[in-house]
Amino acid sequence: MYERILVAVDSTPEADDVLAHTARLAGAIGAAVRVLHVQTLDVVDGGGVGGVVEDETADAAVKVVTGAVDTLRAAGVTNVEGWTEETVRGDVPNAVLDQARAFGADLLILGARRHGGVASLFLGSVSDTVAHRSVCPVLLIP
Questions:
Q1: Torsion, CA 91, CA 6, CA 128, CA 137, rounded to 10
Q2: pLDDT tens across 15-42, in order?
Q3: How, if at all, do strands 32-44 and 51-54 pair?
Q4: How much is the pTM?
Q5: 43-to-38, 51, 97 alpha-carbon distances in Å
Q6: What's the pLDDT tens digit per position in 53-87?
């Protein structure tokens, strides 16, 4: 069925549900899992002196990944590794899709945040973009 699962997590409480589903599925089928956390960066114009502002530190990003890896291992997933990426804000879907290709994932798992009404028109959605552009199946966890 699935042999290589890429699970994308962030630092929100919803990541716990994503990891629980990943652990149950990967444990049942013996799939290898790569945990991905994308650290977003903002590029700012400083009046001719541009710069980059991190939304979170690299240490915080690594902590998200190691925590997720530890959670999966504690749940019995033995073949699991962690990975962090940096990307400019707004390019998170491409970072997830690129990493899925690089890992050879045959399933992507990520959370589906729900924005209602007008907010969904302007905010966009990482999960929607990934689901529509992925070349492998995507499991969205509400």
A1: 140
A2: 999 999 999 999 999 999 999 999 877 6
A3: antiparallel
A4: 0.85
A5: 16, 6, 22
A6: 666 778 888 899 999 999 999 999 999 999 887 66
Domain residue limits, the chain: 4-141
CATH architecture assigned to 4-141: 3-Layer(aba) Sandwich (3.40)
- 38 Cβ contact list (under 8 Å, min separation 6): 8, 10, 84, 85, 86, 87, 92, 95, 96
Cβ atoms of residues 110 and 130 within 8 Å: yes
Here the tokens at position 94 are: 């491409």
